[in-house]
Amino acid sequence: MLSTLLINYEEAVAIILFGIGFTMLLFHRNLVKKLIGMNIMDTGVFLFLASMGYISGRKAPIIVDGVMDVDAYINPVPAGLVLTGIVVSVSVTAVTLSLTIRLYKRYHTLNLDDIYMLSRHETEDR
Amino acid sequence: MDFIRNFPLFSIVLSLFSGVLCTMLKGRHAKNYTAVFEGVLIAMNAAVLYYTMKTGTSFTYVMGEFPAPWGNEIRAGILEALIVLTFLIVVLCSVLAGWRFLQIDVDESKVNYYFSIINLLTAALLAMSYTNDIFTGYVFLEILTLTSCGLIVVREIGRTTLAAIRYMILNLVGSGLFLLGVVLLYDITGHLLMIPMHEKIQLIAESGIGMQPLTLAVGVITIGLGIKSGLFPFYLWMPDTYGWSTPSSGSILSAIISKCYIFLLIKIYLRVIGEDVLGMIHVPRILFVLGILGMSMGSVSAIRKKSINRMIAFSSAAQIGYIYMGIGLGGPYGYTAAIFQIIAHCVTKSLLFLTSPRLAEVSGDSLLFKNLQGSAFRAKRAGLFFIIGAFSMIGIPIFAGFSSKILFGLAGAYCGQTGKFILTMLALAASSVLNAIYFIRTVIRIYSRGESGMKESVAIVPTAEGRIKTVRHDTEDDEKKYGAWTRSQRLMYELPCHVLIAYNLLLGLFAWAFVDLIERGLLMFI
Fold first, then answer.
1. Are the C-beta atoms of residues B239 and B93 closer than 8 Å to each other?
2. Of B61, B53, B87, which Cα lies nearest the Cα of B520?
3. Mean pLDDT value across residues A57-62
4. pLDDT of B451 higher than 70
5. How confident is the model over B194-234, as pLDDT tens digits?
6. Residue B237: which H helix or E strand, with range?
7. Chain B residues whose beta carbon lies within 8 Å of the beta carbon of residue A78
8. H helix intervals, B330-459
9. Pairing mode, if any, of strands B461-462 and B468-469?
């Protein structure tokens, strides 16, 4: 069991990162820390993808020196997926941060529980 | 005729383009443009539906010059076209009927951004429904998350921002899990297109090697999309999200967005994983139990609510439970019932979310039951629309809800397991009674004259200076006299509601035609 983990240490680290990020995103009360958690979670997935797509000894699939053999190159799709994933992650982070700023300006706190209490006091259920 | 095969891609690209265009238009022009554009999209996708019905097969549209398994594909069949058509009709009706409320809730300088969001959201809905590539599904799923967050936050009050951030956080958890699932599936199959993926998964299931990661992948995808669509026990974000957003947003969020995630899940289950493999890893059984729990717990929560929008939001949780129960029952009958329920609930819930703000408007802008007393006398048409929506929810014959309940009963009978059949019937009976309790109670309340109801309307009219006038009146006729509602405003509110009611009645009276369509669609879906 342990030896399998050691051989696949990149994937193991990726899953641990995902777990840390997931827990932070779900259970931390501070909005900025939640967002950091989300980014750690996404990074875990990207590391997983990148490590799966890389085969040691092979190069990026750009033909130089006329080498046409498939075995000389790695699969470019996972790298493409990671790039797309990063773009998505950045835009989601930007939107969530802008919401966080709006909430902070209004309630002067980043604690989600406090914001909830303050907003309930501010507007009654209608 | 074959030109129609381009329409799915055209609709997606044109929607994205319209999203950008609307940022440059003025608010009112953006609304008019979006309404016309949605009409064009409806016509285009109706043509796709007609084409697939006529040819009797689905078609695959290959992007660029890269055929499977390398390129990216769109696949359209009867089912996709029918679902997309329903979504588009509901979006158009919600936007038009909610226009008046949107003018109040949203700053005039930002109205065009709202319509920009609506167009981007339409692009995401279309792409998620038509795509044959699981990673494209993920990308547009994130776009849908971002745009739906925009729909909530466009009404700038503290509660909507809080609701938006809570919605966003849960959705990000869901998206993260979905992405992990997609990556795991890619890892074990080596493909992103659904059909080659399915072939590899069949080989894995036959050999039995790699079943653990496959189970994990299906598990995280199910939980991810379950969180996003409001499966039990992940439905507690619904009331704040639907209750505080502007009416057209509430209608779109509850009627369409959660259904779009479920449709993607059904697509992954049937087209990528396959029903036999799903059965091997016990997913239907788990979904069946969670669906039934959602049906009952959603309704119990709805009964305890004091505000009409919160009640309708929790009733959504119950109705989503029905859909998951259908997926849990499985087989052609189970999936037919689930997809019929998606369409029926889409049409009914949007109607309810569009009528409740009108009832609130004539009750001192309050959604609380105690203030809504007698509101149906002050807004007669809205009261009538609410009754129709409520009757459909309860399952009164001739309305869509009745047909979907019959279909669930049939699916239970044909699933081949006595235990599941008994549980389905019990759940249907219990849920119908619970639905009746809270909807009939609401109908009685809005139709009972009494002292506790607010008799005063806040008549929220945007004036030239951007102020809101207050006019007192007791009935709609009074309101007309004071000029709170012009003829065109009334038409713009009522016509979309009539369209939704007509669709509801079509689903109720001609259910067999829709069932036939869905069954044919399911055959060409896989």
1. no
2. B53
3. 83
4. no
5. 999 999 999 999 998 889 999 999 999 999 999 999 888 88
6. none
7. 186
8. 331-361, 369-372, 375-378, 380-394, 400-414, 418-446
9. antiparallel
Closest partner residue to B173 (CB to CB) among A25, A31, A118 is: A25
> Packing angle between helix B78-97 and helix B111-130, nearest 10 degrees?
170
Tell me whether residues A92 and B169 touch, CB distance under 8 A. no
Q: How far apart are CA B71 and CA B78, in angstroms?
A: 23
Q: What tens digit of pLDDT does each residue of B315-352 get?
A: 999 999 999 999 999 889 999 999 999 999 999 999 99
**Among candidates A117, A105, A49, A103, which has minimal Cα distance to B153?**
A103
Please check whether residue B340 is in contact with residue B410, taking contact to mean a CB–CB distance below 8 angstroms: no
How far is B406 from B509, CA to CA, in rounded Å? 13
Give the span between the Cα atoms of B178 and B141, in whole angstroms.
10
Q: A64 CA to chain B: closest CA distance, Å?
A: 23
Residue A79: both structure tokens together: 């790298």
Pairwise CB contact (< 8 Å): A99 & B146: no
Contact A103 B165 (CB under 8 A): yes
Q: Token digits for B76?
A: 């359209």
For B138, the enclosing helix (H) or strand (E) is helix B134-153
Report residue B102 as tokens: 């949107």
Helices (H), B154-193: 158-189
State which H helix or E strand residue B39 sits in.
Answer: helix B27-55
pLDDT tens-digit map of A14-25: 999 999 998 998
Please enumerate in sequence order all residues whose Cβ is within 8 A of that of B85, keeping only pairs 6 or more positions apart, or say none.
Answer: B42, B45, B46, B49
Phi, psi of B210, deg, nearest 5: 95, 15
Q: How would residue B461 be classed by pLDDT, with cut points 50, 70 and 90?
A: low
Give the burial class of B232: count Cβ atoms within 10 A of its Cβ; 0-12 exposed, 13-18 middle, 19 or more buried.
buried
Contacts of A96 in chain B (CB under 8 A): 165, 168-169, 172
ipTM: 0.90
Can you read off the two tokens belonging to residue B357? 């703000």
Residue among B161, B172, B192 minimizing CB distance to A25: B172
Task: Report residue B45 as tokens.
Answer: 């996708």
d(CA A103, CA A109): 8
* Cβ atoms of A11 and A37 closer than 8 Å: no
Helix (H, G, I), strand (E, B) or coil at A76: coil
HSE value, Cβ hemisphere, 13 Å, CA-based, for A126: 17
Strand partners, B462: B468
Q: What is the amino acid identity at position B265?
A: L
The mean pLDDT of chain B is 89
